[in-house]
Design goal:
The complex is a heterodimer. By secondary structure, chain A is mainly α. Helix content of chain A is about 75%, strand content about 0%. Chain A has a two-stranded antiparallel sheet. In chain A, a hairpin with a 3-residue loop joins strand 1 and strand 2. In chain A, helix 4 packs across helix 11, helix 5 runs antiparallel to helix 6 and helix 7 packs across helix 11. The longest helix of chain A has 28 residues. By secondary structure, chain B is of the alpha/beta class. Chain B has 3 domains: about 210 residues, Rossmann fold; about 170 residues, 3-Layer(aba) Sandwich (Rossmann fold); about 80 residues, no CATH class. Chain B is about 30% helix and about 25% strand. In chain B, helix 4 packs across helix 5 and helix 8 packs across helix 18. Chain B is globular. Classes of the chains: A mainly alpha, B alpha/beta.
């Protein structure tokens, strides 16, 4: 067999997520009254990048066979922090952005440290730390408010050359600067190895701890990028509990839609991004087909179930029933 | 034989696991440019020996010397760095990564901070070629490869680390015949390149073909080292057995009449290339043993009978009637009345955090409930009966079963199934890791159950048990019944010779009932 067939097989789940999104998006555009205009694309992009960043964050952790239930809360916390810090002179704004990103990374690093050194399960750890992060967010913004540098906000949520949505460019830049180097690094490979078979990874002398720590830290950083963008869209900080929880759950849905295995070791952050885009498009589709928005959760659920069922087909080929539980 | 200094030497190395001596005062010399075979029964200490060499476990006592310098390995990575690489029986490959990713996993080539994929590809192709497996594509995912191919990748992975001492632990057990002959060519070439190879295998003809030196282990001790070819197969088997035989078994009753109809019979049972046309019968009152080396299909046979495996072919007959068993819950139903005491009591036999009471009741819930509600009084009575009958020593039935000793835990697993009054009992190595006293109680129990009319199929890795407990023994090799031993024919000689698939003509090993 030639190389491309292996590469295709290796990226099948990611490509499937891309295909699902493309089909949904074409359906959306072709039924949209305005059609494919820069404006429609910009709106779609701005709505989707928030979940895309949080889904990327989730994907990094899920690849190590963990799960991060605090991503939504880091997202909310960094939103509240940005509404304090990303104001003032350009220099202050610059430092504010860095401080917000550093805070997100620190939150992720704390998760990672507890999971690695405390040997606690990721699910419990991140429920607890998520609650703490939300508590801090609430202390920062007991009531919605604050502001953000509007020049920067408008620039990053507007269009470049009147055509390409800036938020989409930032997303591409983040993929190019964080995900691609990470996935090609020794640490990134170690993350996949750890998620696929931690025992085999240990026996092969793979740096398991470093892989997990970096995955959680980058996850926090990506969630913070999402939090910054939330601030750019809303111009305020809001410690919204429901919003944090929704983003956490939707990020898991996006990751699954994007072909990242919840058992770890398979999938990519790019798949997760397309999973997020597809998940967001469900709502848009309902809109152009004149469905009541109340149907949105139901359809999101159906799409998710469908995606998970496709992934479960392999179980029908299991010949030793004990493998179902392995 | 060149009398150069050994490349690697172990002196007086000992290791215990919780009071059980796995390795005692072992010495071993490994020389460059030679293949050293390690022989021994299951549990003779071979695995512990190589785990110590490979840095997986630390020895309690003793010294290891490499190149004349004393060394110790805190981790497998440290052993690798020193040039000692082990290919383990349990594969160490990562299923979701490609072959090339796996081959360089411990030390990937780097470029600009990332992994140099072109260089990685080159290393992988090179290592695969050295392992005689150039037909494996470096980009294939490991999980898509067959077991035999994976084993070759494992060997390539080891070679990519440029080892000086290469340990192969049953490395050929999963290989097809074609791959085995490839590997032999590879191993001989490595020997001529000056590597020291340690070769652990149960296959005598492989050892005869490859080895320069042989060491025999028994009960955690090294009993002999000799140049290959200087002993006959019979002498080697003698060295491997050679332990005193304690009579802890209850007397065997007279043989069950051959005309008594079997309660369990299977005909030409096959599964997925792992079981090959196995036919057997078990009559009420009989204990039929399953012998052979570990991993020759005994476990799969029991799972197949118990309805766990899908896609089996052949026939299973219960009371002479063809029956299809599709799940454990069907297997345990009154119509069939089967019970399987699983191999791993901690994962498949017990819910460790739950109480003794709950664990005992699981398999018999239908029996102790009325209209879906558990009848507490009835449950209590049955549990008390069981605890008394099996002499389960526990501080009450309401403590977590995980708090009991291994032997008592195993009694709970067995009692749990006896609550269901099974007619057919499949025992999968039920005495592994439990103390002698409890073992003895279990042997008596098994005999009592057959006297009451049960039929038992008994797999054991302990040859003494097969000899002491069984009326007949079927020896499995590579998923097929190699030989059936009846009554006095069941001797260690016959068991080991047929398990190794050689003809170490002991006086009783002549008959082949097939």
């Amino acid at each position: 067999m030639s190389d491309w067939r292996f590469r295709l097989a290796d990226n099948r789940s990611t490509l499937l997520a891309v295909a699902i999104f493309v089909v949904m998006f074409i359906l959306y555009i072709s039924n949209h009254p305005a059609g494919l205009t820069a404006n429609v694309v910009q709106t779609a992009s701005n709505k989707a990048v928030l979940l895309a960043f949080v889904a990327m964050a989730q994907a990094l952790v899920v690849i190590t066979a963990g799960i991060d239930l605090s991503v939504g809360m880091i997202f909310v916390l960094t939103n509240c922090l940005a509404s304090w810090l990303v104001v003032g002179t350009p220099l202050e704004v610059g430092f504010g952005v860095l401080a917000v990103l550093a805070t997100g990374a620190a939150c992720g690093a704390i998760n990672g440290a507890i999971v690695i050194f405390g040997r606690l399960q990721p699910i419990v750890t991140t429920i607890a730390t998520g609650a703490i992060y939300f508590g801090i967010a609430l202390a920062l913004r007991p009531f919605p408010g604050g502001s953000v540098d509007e020049t920067l906000a408008d620039a990053l949520t507007g269009r470049v050359f009147g055509l390409v949505p800036a938020s989409l460019l930032v997303l591409v830049a983040v993929v190019a600067m964080i995900w691609i180097p990470y996935s090609r690094s020794v640490t990134g490979r170690a993350a996949y190895a750890t998620g696929s078979s931690e025992a085999a990874a240990y026996m092969s002398g793979v740096p398991i701890r470093r892989a997990k720590f970096v995955a959680y830290t980058l996850s926090g950083l990506l969630a913070a990028i999402g939090g910054l963008f939330l601030t750019f869209f809303t111009y305020t900080g809001d410690a919204a509990y429901a919003s944090g929880n929704a983003y956490t759950l939707f990020s898991i849905a996006a990751v699954v839609l994007g072909g990242v295995s919840l058992f770890g070791g398979r999938g990519s952050a790019i798949g997760a991004i397309f999973g997020a885009l597809a998940f967001r498009t469900i709502g848009d589709l309902l809109f152009v087909f004149d469905f009541d928005p109340l149907w949105q959760p139901l359809f999101q659920g159906l799409v998710l179930l469908f995606a998970v069922s496709v992934g479960a087909v392999a179980l029908f080929r299991v010949r030793n029933r004990l493998d179902w539980f392995a | 034989m060149p009398l150069n200094e050994p490349l690697f030497r172990m002196e007086g190395v000992s290791k215990s696991y919780g009071g059980v001596r796995a390795l005692e005062d072992a010495d071993l010399d490994v020389r460059a440019g030679r293949i050293h075979a390690i022989l021994g029964e299951n549990g003779a200490g071979k695995s512990t020996l190589i785990k110590i060499m490979a840095g997986v476990v630390a020895p309690d006592q003793g010294r290891m010397i490499l190149d004349g310098r004393e060394i110790s390995f805190p981790s497998p990575a440290a052993a690798n760095a020193a040039g000692i690489v082990c290919i383990f029986q349990e594969l160490s490959l990562i299923p979701d990564l490609s072959v090339a990713d796996n081959i360089v996993i411990s030390n990937p080539p780097r470029r600009f901070g990332g992994i140099d994929r072109r260089e990685q590809r080159r290393i992988a192709a090179d290592a695969l070629a050295r392992a005689g497996a150039s037909d494996i594509h470096p980009l294939a995912l490991v999980k898509d490869l067959s077991l035999s191919r994976r084993q070759l990748v494992e060997i390539a992975k080891a070679l990519a680390r440029r080892p000086r001492v290469l340990i192969l632990d049953e490395a050929t057990s999963a290989l097809t015949a074609a791959d085995v002959s490839n590997i032999f060519v590879v191993l001989k070439r490595l020997r001529s390149e000056g590597l020291a190879l340690l070769y652990i295998s149960h296959r005598m003809h492989e050892i005869a073909e490859l080895a320069d030196d042989c060491s025999v282990f028994r009960n955690g001790r090294k009993v002999a080292t000799y140049p290959a070819g200087s002993k006959t197969n019979a002498e080697v088997v003698e060295l491997m057995i050679g332990r005193e035989y304690k009579n802890v078994f209850p007397p065997k009753p007279p043989p069950v009449p051959a005309d008594r109809p079997p309660v369990l019979e299977c005909r030409k049972l096959s599964w997925s290339g792992r079981l090959h046309e196995i036919s057997l019968t078990v009559r009420p009152g009989e204990i039929v043993g399953l012998g052979g080396l570990d991993g020759q299909g005994q476990r799969e046979l029991m799972l197949a009978l118990f309805g766990v495996l899908r896609g089996t072919t052949g026939e299973i007959l219960i009371d002479g009637k063809p029956t299809s068993i599709a799940s454990p819950s069907q297997a345990k139903s009154d119509a069939i009345g089967m019970a399987l005491i699983p191999e791993d009591r901690k994962t498949e036999g017990l819910m460790l955090p739950m109480t003794v009471r709950d664990n005992l009741s699981f398999a018999a819930l239908e029996r102790i409930s009325r209209h879906g509600v558990i009848d507490g009084a009835r449950e209590q009575a049955m549990i008390e009966d069981m605890v008394r009958a099996l002499a389960i020593r526990s501080a009450g039935v309401d403590i977590p079963v995980g708090a009991l000793s291994g032997g008592n835990q195993q009694k709970v697993v067995i009692a749990k199934w006896l609550m269901n009054r099974p007619r057919i009992i499949l025992l999968n190595d039920p005495t592994r890791g439990i103390d002698v006293g409890t073992k003895q109680e279990l042997y008596v129990l098994f005999r009592r159950l057959t006297a009451e009319g049960a039929a038992i199929l008994f797999y054991s890795t302990d040859y003494d048990e097969l000899i002491g407990c069984c009326d007949r023994v079927l020896v499995l090799y590579d998923g097929a019944v190699k030989r059936e031993l009846v009554g006095d024919e069941i001797t260690e000689h016959a068991l080991i010779a047929s398990a190794l698939d050689i003809d170490a003509a002991g006086p009783a090993a002549k008959a082949v009932h097939s």
